[in-house]
Write a structure and sequence with these properties.
Number of domains: 1
Strand content: 25-35%
Radius of gyration: 18 Å
Largest sheet: 6 strands, mixed
Strand order of the largest sheet: 6-7-8-3-9-10
Shape: globular
Bound molecules: adenosine-5'-diphosphate, magnesium ion
CATH superfamily: P-loop containing nucleotide triphosphate hydrolases
Number of strands: 10
Distance between the termini: 37 Å
Helix content: 25-40%
Order of helices and strands: EEEHEEHEHHHEHEEE
CATH class: Alpha Beta
Amino acid sequence: MEKNGANRNIILSAKDLVKTYGKGEAQVHALGGVSLDIYEGELLAILGSSGSGKSTLLNMLGGMDQPDSGSITVGGRELRTMKDRELTRYRRDDVGFVFQSFNLIAELTAKENVAMTAEPSKGKNYIKEMLELVGLGAKLNSYPMQMSGGEQQRVSIARALAKDPRLLLCDEPTGALDYETGKQILIALEKLVREHGKTVVIVTHTQEIGRMADRVIRMRSGKIIEQTVNENPVSAEIMEW
Ligand code: ADP
Ligand code: MG
């Protein structure tokens, strides 16, 4: 694995990502040359107001969308040079996605929703463990409709974790939740990094969420305008916004 100056493992490296939507007058420069590294075991916050290009960037990092130009390198391989099958495997196995809208299947219980993406070799116990990890040990057999928004979002985090991804990408994970519930989600994500060594990227327009991150990247109009390191991140528990 590539290392940076401080000898930290870089798990993903993006260089000069450009993405333009539309043509002529309707053209939108969603990304105007974005470069960033993601380090193993960090909590990275990507902040920016609505329309600044955050989702476009996250989708590219997760292999869901292709840049017009620029490169994304993961484990020594460039996404663009991967064959379809490899790219599918990357999306499926290496990246976990958490969306604002939960995206759970209504007809399946919490356990079944998580089982959908779990590695077949992992078994039933592992699925239970993932749900316990996000504090849902008592809701294994509940359907999405029987759960609060925060609980549903925690199922979606458990689901993303169930394939043991290298990277957990969260797009406005608290966007559809009230303050207290959003806080529970942030506490759960923080715990994954601090206690379980996961690598988590949170994209949000809520600036204050940056305070709990190890590193903060600020975007405006498709560009990174600032990158900062938090030597002493604030715990999500006491953070207010
Ligand atoms: P954010 O997630 O920060 O709100 P997005 O990445 O969703 O920003 O969008 C960045 C810009 O690109 C916005 O101006 C948005 O309208 C535009 N955009 C995003 N996706 C598309 C698309 N599929 N077609 C056209 N324009 C798009
Ligand atoms: Mg977005």
